[in-house]
Amino acid sequence: MDNTSLHEFCWEDGYIFCPRCSNKNIYMLKGDRYRCSLCKYTFHDFSGRWLNYCSLDHNSWEEIIKYYISGWSAASIARSLNLSYNLAHKSLKVIRSSLLIRDETFIPLLENPLKIRTYCSMAEGDARFKHCLGENAPVFSVRYAGTGVKVGYVPSLNVKEVLFMQTRKRFCRSMFVCDYPGENGYLLFSCCAYLRKKTRCDNFLDHRRSLEAESSFWTMCFEMLDRYHKFSPESFPLYLKEFEARYEHGLSSLKALISKSICSFVPDLKH
To answer: What is the DSSP string of 84-100?
Structure first.
Protein backbone atom coordinates (compact mmCIF):
# COMPACT_ATOMS: atom_id res chain seq x y z
CA MET A 1 0.00 0.00 0.00
CA ASP A 2 1.09 3.57 -0.72
CA ASN A 3 2.13 5.24 2.56
CA THR A 4 1.95 8.80 1.23
CA SER A 5 0.06 10.94 3.78
CA LEU A 6 -3.02 12.99 2.94
CA HIS A 7 -1.00 16.10 3.81
CA GLU A 8 1.44 15.22 1.02
CA PHE A 9 -1.43 14.71 -1.44
CA CYS A 10 -2.75 18.17 -0.51
CA TRP A 11 0.60 19.80 -1.31
CA GLU A 12 2.06 17.45 -3.91
CA ASP A 13 4.81 19.79 -5.10
CA GLY A 14 5.84 20.51 -1.49
CA TYR A 15 4.75 24.16 -1.63
CA ILE A 16 1.88 25.44 0.46
CA PHE A 17 -0.15 28.13 -1.29
CA CYS A 18 -3.30 30.13 -0.61
CA PRO A 19 -6.45 28.35 -1.89
CA ARG A 20 -8.02 31.74 -2.66
CA CYS A 21 -5.33 33.69 -4.48
CA SER A 22 -2.61 31.03 -5.06
CA ASN A 23 0.02 33.18 -3.33
CA LYS A 24 2.91 31.08 -1.99
CA ASN A 25 4.05 33.59 0.60
CA ILE A 26 2.43 31.91 3.60
CA TYR A 27 3.13 31.98 7.30
CA MET A 28 2.21 29.51 10.01
CA LEU A 29 -0.30 30.02 12.80
CA LYS A 30 -1.06 27.89 15.83
CA GLY A 31 -3.15 24.74 15.41
CA ASP A 32 -1.75 23.70 12.01
CA ARG A 33 -3.28 26.71 10.30
CA TYR A 34 -1.78 29.08 7.74
CA ARG A 35 -2.34 32.69 6.72
CA CYS A 36 -1.79 34.22 3.32
CA SER A 37 0.47 37.28 3.43
CA LEU A 38 -1.35 38.78 0.44
CA CYS A 39 -5.12 38.31 0.92
CA LYS A 40 -4.93 37.43 4.67
CA TYR A 41 -7.01 34.28 4.19
CA THR A 42 -6.61 31.81 7.09
CA PHE A 43 -6.75 28.17 6.10
CA HIS A 44 -5.59 24.63 6.91
CA ASP A 45 -4.53 21.63 4.85
CA PHE A 46 -8.10 20.55 4.04
CA SER A 47 -9.56 24.01 3.27
CA GLY A 48 -11.47 24.04 -0.01
CA ARG A 49 -10.88 20.34 -0.59
CA TRP A 50 -13.31 17.44 -0.78
CA LEU A 51 -12.35 16.00 2.58
CA ASN A 52 -13.27 19.30 4.25
CA TYR A 53 -16.95 18.42 3.72
CA CYS A 54 -16.69 16.14 6.77
CA SER A 55 -15.46 17.06 10.23
CA LEU A 56 -12.93 14.24 10.26
CA ASP A 57 -9.25 14.27 11.09
CA HIS A 58 -6.39 12.82 9.05
CA ASN A 59 -6.40 9.44 10.84
CA SER A 60 -10.17 8.97 10.47
CA TRP A 61 -9.95 9.62 6.74
CA GLU A 62 -7.12 7.10 6.41
CA GLU A 63 -9.28 4.47 8.11
CA ILE A 64 -12.33 5.33 5.99
CA ILE A 65 -10.30 5.01 2.77
CA LYS A 66 -9.07 1.59 3.93
CA TYR A 67 -12.61 0.41 4.71
CA TYR A 68 -14.02 1.87 1.48
CA ILE A 69 -11.45 -0.04 -0.59
CA SER A 70 -12.51 -3.22 1.26
CA GLY A 71 -16.15 -2.52 0.35
CA TRP A 72 -17.47 -1.76 3.83
CA SER A 73 -20.91 -0.20 4.18
CA ALA A 74 -21.50 3.13 5.89
CA ALA A 75 -23.15 1.32 8.82
CA SER A 76 -20.10 -0.93 9.33
CA ILE A 77 -17.70 2.03 9.14
CA ALA A 78 -19.81 4.00 11.61
CA ARG A 79 -19.69 1.15 14.13
CA SER A 80 -15.96 0.53 13.70
CA LEU A 81 -14.92 4.18 14.02
CA ASN A 82 -17.64 5.21 16.50
CA LEU A 83 -19.09 7.75 14.06
CA SER A 84 -22.69 8.66 13.38
CA TYR A 85 -24.20 6.84 10.42
CA ASN A 86 -24.84 10.15 8.65
CA LEU A 87 -21.18 11.17 8.90
CA ALA A 88 -19.94 7.79 7.67
CA HIS A 89 -22.43 7.88 4.79
CA LYS A 90 -21.38 11.42 3.87
CA SER A 91 -17.70 10.47 3.87
CA LEU A 92 -18.37 7.69 1.34
CA LYS A 93 -20.38 10.10 -0.80
CA VAL A 94 -17.44 12.54 -0.71
CA ILE A 95 -15.12 9.80 -2.01
CA ARG A 96 -17.52 8.79 -4.78
CA SER A 97 -18.25 12.39 -5.78
CA SER A 98 -14.55 13.25 -5.95
CA LEU A 99 -13.97 10.24 -8.23
CA LEU A 100 -16.94 11.16 -10.42
CA ILE A 101 -15.91 14.75 -11.00
CA ARG A 102 -12.45 13.74 -12.19
CA ASP A 103 -14.35 13.14 -15.44
CA GLU A 104 -15.55 16.64 -16.34
CA THR A 105 -18.16 15.31 -18.77
CA PHE A 106 -20.24 14.32 -15.71
CA ILE A 107 -20.40 17.88 -14.32
CA PRO A 108 -23.72 18.71 -16.09
CA LEU A 109 -25.37 16.00 -13.96
CA LEU A 110 -24.53 17.82 -10.71
CA GLU A 111 -26.77 20.23 -8.85
CA ASN A 112 -23.91 20.88 -6.43
CA PRO A 113 -20.66 18.97 -5.79
CA LEU A 114 -22.40 16.43 -3.53
CA LYS A 115 -25.80 16.23 -5.22
CA ILE A 116 -26.81 14.64 -8.51
CA ARG A 117 -29.76 16.31 -10.24
CA THR A 118 -33.02 14.43 -9.73
CA TYR A 119 -35.21 13.56 -12.68
CA CYS A 120 -38.38 12.15 -11.06
CA SER A 121 -40.31 15.22 -9.91
CA MET A 122 -42.21 13.51 -7.08
CA ALA A 123 -41.65 10.53 -4.85
CA GLU A 124 -43.60 7.34 -5.42
CA GLY A 125 -46.50 7.26 -2.98
CA ASP A 126 -47.27 10.94 -3.48
CA ALA A 127 -50.92 11.32 -4.52
CA ARG A 128 -49.81 13.39 -7.54
CA PHE A 129 -47.15 10.88 -8.56
CA LYS A 130 -46.91 10.15 -12.26
CA HIS A 131 -43.95 8.01 -13.20
CA CYS A 132 -41.58 9.48 -15.80
CA LEU A 133 -40.83 6.01 -17.25
CA GLY A 134 -37.18 6.97 -17.17
CA GLU A 135 -37.76 9.69 -19.76
CA ASN A 136 -35.40 12.16 -18.10
CA ALA A 137 -32.85 9.65 -16.78
CA PRO A 138 -29.30 10.15 -18.09
CA VAL A 139 -27.79 7.46 -20.31
CA PHE A 140 -24.30 6.09 -19.68
CA SER A 141 -21.89 3.84 -21.52
CA VAL A 142 -19.42 1.18 -20.46
CA ARG A 143 -16.80 0.56 -23.13
CA TYR A 144 -13.97 -1.94 -23.08
CA ALA A 145 -10.57 -0.35 -23.54
CA GLY A 146 -7.74 -2.88 -23.63
CA THR A 147 -7.94 -4.81 -20.37
CA GLY A 148 -9.93 -2.04 -18.66
CA VAL A 149 -13.23 -0.22 -19.03
CA LYS A 150 -14.26 3.39 -19.51
CA VAL A 151 -17.54 4.70 -18.11
CA GLY A 152 -18.99 7.68 -19.94
CA TYR A 153 -22.02 9.98 -19.93
CA VAL A 154 -23.91 9.94 -23.26
CA PRO A 155 -26.01 13.15 -23.41
CA SER A 156 -26.72 12.60 -27.11
CA LEU A 157 -29.01 9.64 -26.28
CA ASN A 158 -32.19 9.49 -24.23
CA VAL A 159 -33.93 6.56 -22.58
CA LYS A 160 -36.66 6.26 -25.21
CA GLU A 161 -34.07 5.89 -27.98
CA VAL A 162 -32.23 3.23 -25.98
CA LEU A 163 -35.42 1.27 -25.27
CA PHE A 164 -36.29 1.14 -28.98
CA MET A 165 -32.86 -0.06 -30.07
CA GLN A 166 -32.90 -3.49 -31.71
CA THR A 167 -30.44 -5.11 -29.33
CA ARG A 168 -30.32 -7.33 -26.24
CA LYS A 169 -31.92 -5.67 -23.21
CA ARG A 170 -31.37 -6.73 -19.62
CA PHE A 171 -32.72 -5.27 -16.39
CA CYS A 172 -30.84 -6.00 -13.15
CA ARG A 173 -32.33 -4.42 -10.04
CA SER A 174 -32.72 -0.75 -10.99
CA MET A 175 -30.12 -0.97 -13.76
CA PHE A 176 -31.07 -1.30 -17.42
CA VAL A 177 -28.30 -2.61 -19.72
CA CYS A 178 -28.26 -3.13 -23.46
CA ASP A 179 -25.56 -3.69 -26.08
CA TYR A 180 -24.11 -0.48 -27.52
CA PRO A 181 -24.64 -0.71 -31.30
CA GLY A 182 -21.37 -0.24 -33.18
CA GLU A 183 -19.32 -0.14 -29.97
CA ASN A 184 -17.52 -2.73 -27.85
CA GLY A 185 -19.60 -2.13 -24.75
CA TYR A 186 -22.98 -1.31 -23.28
CA LEU A 187 -25.51 1.46 -22.75
CA LEU A 188 -27.04 1.82 -19.29
CA PHE A 189 -29.51 3.87 -17.33
CA SER A 190 -31.21 3.49 -13.98
CA CYS A 191 -34.81 3.86 -12.95
CA CYS A 192 -37.13 2.24 -10.42
CA ALA A 193 -38.91 -1.12 -10.55
CA TYR A 194 -41.96 0.41 -12.27
CA LEU A 195 -40.05 0.71 -15.52
CA ARG A 196 -38.81 -2.87 -15.20
CA LYS A 197 -42.42 -4.05 -15.12
CA LYS A 198 -43.31 -1.93 -18.13
CA THR A 199 -40.42 -3.30 -20.18
CA ARG A 200 -41.08 -6.89 -18.99
CA CYS A 201 -37.46 -7.41 -18.00
CA ASP A 202 -38.09 -9.20 -14.71
CA ASN A 203 -35.75 -12.17 -14.95
CA PHE A 204 -33.03 -10.56 -12.84
CA LEU A 205 -30.93 -13.63 -12.03
CA ASP A 206 -30.71 -14.82 -15.64
CA HIS A 207 -29.77 -11.32 -16.79
CA ARG A 208 -27.15 -11.05 -14.08
CA ARG A 209 -25.59 -14.39 -14.99
CA SER A 210 -25.48 -13.52 -18.68
CA LEU A 211 -23.62 -10.28 -17.96
CA GLU A 212 -21.21 -11.96 -15.54
CA ALA A 213 -20.44 -14.56 -18.22
CA GLU A 214 -19.39 -11.77 -20.61
CA SER A 215 -16.90 -9.90 -18.41
CA SER A 216 -15.25 -9.95 -14.99
CA PHE A 217 -16.22 -6.26 -14.80
CA TRP A 218 -19.85 -7.26 -14.29
CA THR A 219 -18.92 -9.92 -11.76
CA MET A 220 -17.15 -7.24 -9.70
CA CYS A 221 -20.09 -4.82 -10.12
CA PHE A 222 -22.64 -7.28 -8.81
CA GLU A 223 -20.40 -8.39 -5.94
CA MET A 224 -20.12 -4.75 -4.85
CA LEU A 225 -23.86 -4.13 -5.32
CA ASP A 226 -24.59 -7.18 -3.15
CA ARG A 227 -22.59 -5.49 -0.38
CA TYR A 228 -24.29 -2.14 -0.86
CA HIS A 229 -27.75 -3.77 -1.07
CA LYS A 230 -29.36 -0.95 -3.06
CA PHE A 231 -28.81 2.45 -4.61
CA SER A 232 -31.08 5.24 -5.81
CA PRO A 233 -31.27 5.92 -9.57
CA GLU A 234 -29.77 9.38 -8.96
CA SER A 235 -26.71 7.74 -7.35
CA PHE A 236 -26.15 5.46 -10.34
CA PRO A 237 -23.33 7.52 -11.95
CA LEU A 238 -21.47 7.63 -8.61
CA TYR A 239 -21.40 3.83 -8.46
CA LEU A 240 -20.54 3.44 -12.13
CA LYS A 241 -17.44 5.64 -11.75
CA GLU A 242 -16.54 3.79 -8.55
CA PHE A 243 -16.72 0.46 -10.38
CA GLU A 244 -14.57 1.86 -13.18
CA ALA A 245 -11.93 2.94 -10.64
CA ARG A 246 -12.00 -0.40 -8.82
CA TYR A 247 -11.67 -2.36 -12.06
CA GLU A 248 -8.84 -0.19 -13.40
CA HIS A 249 -6.67 -0.01 -10.27
CA GLY A 250 -5.00 -2.44 -7.89
CA LEU A 251 -5.24 -1.91 -4.14
CA SER A 252 -2.16 0.33 -3.89
CA SER A 253 -3.00 2.52 -6.88
CA LEU A 254 -6.67 2.70 -5.84
CA LYS A 255 -5.66 4.08 -2.45
CA ALA A 256 -3.47 6.68 -4.15
CA LEU A 257 -6.25 7.59 -6.60
CA ILE A 258 -8.81 8.06 -3.81
CA SER A 259 -6.37 10.04 -1.65
CA LYS A 260 -5.51 12.31 -4.55
CA SER A 261 -9.18 12.76 -5.43
CA ILE A 262 -10.43 13.73 -1.98
CA CYS A 263 -7.39 15.99 -1.46
CA SER A 264 -8.10 17.92 -4.66
CA PHE A 265 -9.94 21.24 -4.55
CA VAL A 266 -13.70 21.16 -5.01
CA PRO A 267 -14.48 22.81 -8.38
CA ASP A 268 -16.70 25.86 -8.53
CA LEU A 269 -19.69 24.61 -10.54
CA LYS A 270 -21.04 28.13 -10.96
CA HIS A 271 -18.30 29.00 -13.48
So the answer is: -HHHHHHHHHHHHHHHH
